[in-house]
Amino acid sequence: METLKVEYQDPDAPLKVASALHQVGFAVLMRPPVPQQLVAETYAEWQQFFHSEAKHHYRFDPKLQSGYFPFQTERAKGQDHPDLKEFFSPVLLE
């Protein structure tokens, strides 16, 4: 599987990203207008969250479709073994 890399300034970027999301599930958006300092701060905050016990207060809520999934609690479709990850699924606002 090849990862699609899309240049943010490409006029067809929205269509290319949408296509990649439908076909593969992800894409790499190259050179978005997000300051590197903001990216670094966000990573640091999430790292602090995942290393804290506070994460357990935000367990996944099926009604909200949002929350924390502990390590090895999710399985990929059709797989017998759990994924080697923990993650937080945010509420999607429309």
Describe this structure in words.
This protein is of the alpha+beta class and 94 residues long. The chain has 2 domains: 1-33, no CATH class; 35-94, no CATH class. The chain has 2 helices and 4 strands; from the N terminus they run E-H-E-H-E-E. It has helices at residues 13-23, 36-50; strands at 5-7, 28-30, 67-69, 87-89. It is globular and about 45 Å long.
Helices, by number, come to 2
Give the topology string: H per helix, E per strand.
EHEHEE
Rough outline: globular
Q: How many individual β-strands? A: 4
- Share in β-strands: 5-15%
Q: Give the spatial strand order of the biggest sheet.
A: 1-2
Rg for CA atoms: 16 Å
**What structural class is derived from the secondary structure elements?**
alpha+beta
- Any low-confidence stretches, pLDDT <50, length ≥5? none
Q: Percent helix among the residues? A: 25-40%
Kindly report the average pLDDT value: 92
Q: Let me know the largest β-sheet.
A: 2 strands, parallel
Count of discrete structural domains: 2
Distance between the termini: 31 Å
